UniProtKB/TrEMBL annotation:
One of its GO terms (molecular function) is ATP binding. Residues 4-230 form the ABC transporter domain. The lineage of its organism: Bacteria, Bacillati, Bacillota, Bacilli, Bacillales. Pfam families: ABC_tran. It comes from the Bacteria. This is ABC transporter ATP-binding protein. Keywords: ATP-binding, Nucleotide-binding, Transport. The keyword Nucleotide-binding applies.
């Protein structure tokens, strides 16, 4: 697996929060989901990767070469997109496009024009008058207009309704399929990225305790369910479990499933299961 970006020993310390040390790879040509609760460090990590707020310590490599974030050429290859358009709120759509496009020699005017028509966004529209869904689509156009190879998305669908979210992901997947591009999308909604991500990085308290290809991780663990009064086998292969009045549900390493009673219900985990039982409650965290 080839990597488009690698973070080595990335660290950032604030008064009440510490990120890192972070050592992760971002695979080329894949959608990577960055999953964690609010405050886990997702934004700090993405800003460090993009150079908007560089890590205080550590290195970031792009296609195997250490990045110099003062090099303007790196801005043509990657983009960081948040869900904040406040700095353009007094602009018209045309004014914002003119400003951003002036910063990029490789701006694709034809592609942006086609997307504006598709989304029915008029050049004279005031940005502060756009709906939240329209603002997010327009923000995506601003970030993708120079056709970057790597797209870093910081909770882009937060606050959007289900229809706007689906339209957003349709646009994103269409962009990726056009060429071998790579995307990192941060979220605390595991279900919305379950069907589209190939690789996942889980975050907790400024660390990345679990990451890897989605299918590989799902094959490594199994979710089990037992009656609520059942004695749980004593094995370190069970990372965590919770007991309710209905059942005892937990997660176990796949190669230890035979240690469970024959009547245990066993199934493949979802990303939500991995996040809850392995990262949030499990020993790996």
């Amino acid at each position: 697996m080839n990597n488009i970006m690698e973070v080595h020993n990335g660290r950032t310390n604030y008064k009440e929060f510490q990120l890192g040390p972070i050592d992760i790879d971002i695979p080329k040509g894949m959608i990577t989901a960055l999953i964690g609760r609010n405050g886990a460090g997702k934004t700090t990590l993405l800003k460090g990767m993009s150079g908007i707020s560089p890590f205080q310590d550590g290195d970031v490599a792009y296609n195997g070469t250490k990045i110099d974030f003062l090099d303007p050429n790196i801005r043509t290859k990657m983009t960081y997109i948040s869900n904040d358009l406040q700095m353009y709120s007094d602009f018209t759509v045309k004014q914002a496009l003119n400003f951003i496009s002036s910063l990029h020699k490789n701006w694709d005017h034809s592609w942006v024009k086609d997307m504006l028509i598709m989304f029915q966004i008029q050049p004279h529209h005031q940005i502060h008058e756009l709906s939240k869904g329209m603002k997010m689509k327009f923000n995506l156009l601003l970030g993708l207009g120079h056709q970057p190879e790597l797209v870093l998305l910081d909770e882009p669908t937060d606050g959007l309704d289900s229809i706007s979210r689906q339209q957003f992901f349709d646009l994103l997947q269409g962009y990726i399929e056009k060429e071998q591009r790579s995307v990192v999308i941060s979220t605390h909604y595991t279900k919305e990225v379950e069907s589209i991500c190939d690789y996942v990085i889980f975050m907790k308290n400024g660390a990345t305790p679990l990451y890897g290809e989605v299918e590989t991780l799902k094959e490594s663990y199994k979710v089990f369910s037992l009656p609520p009064n059942e004695t749980i086998p004593k094995t370190t292969a069970i990372l965590s479990f919770v007991t309710s009045t209905v059942e005892t549900k937990g997660i176990i390493q796949s190669d230890a499933v035979t240690s469970l009673p024959d009547y245990a219900i066993v199934k493949k985990p979802t990303l939500d299961d991995l996040f809850l039982f392995v990262v949030e409650k499990g020993e790996i965290a």
